[in-house]
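[Automated response] Your request has been received and processed.

Submitted sequence:
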Amino acid sequence: MPLYDLFVRLRSRAFHTYFRFARGMTLGAQACVIDAQNRVFLVRHTYISGWHFPGGGVETGETILEALTRELAEEANLTLAAPPELRAVFFNARISRRDHIALFLVRDFNQSAPRLPDRELAETGFFALDQLPEGLHPSTRDRINEILHGTPHPVLW
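Generated structure:
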């Protein structure tokens, strides 16, 4: 296993160990953002592999919509122009036995500027639905297919 992958796994495990004691349950908000050209916005983080939806954890004292709004601004320079549509809530047992993800569909938004790479995000961008990037996380691919084709959502992320 490459050293970087080991570091990423250890870092993730450390965060989840901390959250196990600091929080009874973890909740994340993610958005499937689709623009007028029918492209989906995806991010590739520096600390986990694959392409994912923008999003992140709901902090103490924050509503899920506040978390989603904050994460879209931080990871995509996006602001909501209309309320997002809650599509499903998933149990993310691969991360932790206490982790849940609320997935929203966002079609009405504004982007102030393209999101540039930094320490958290290696790459971001809009991708045509028939030209999704190599390395797309399987759960992200599944969620895109469920939204586009109306197939039932599973309980597990």
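Summary generated for your ticket: The mean pLDDT is 90. The chain is about 30% helix and 30% strand.
If you did not submit this request, please reply to this message.
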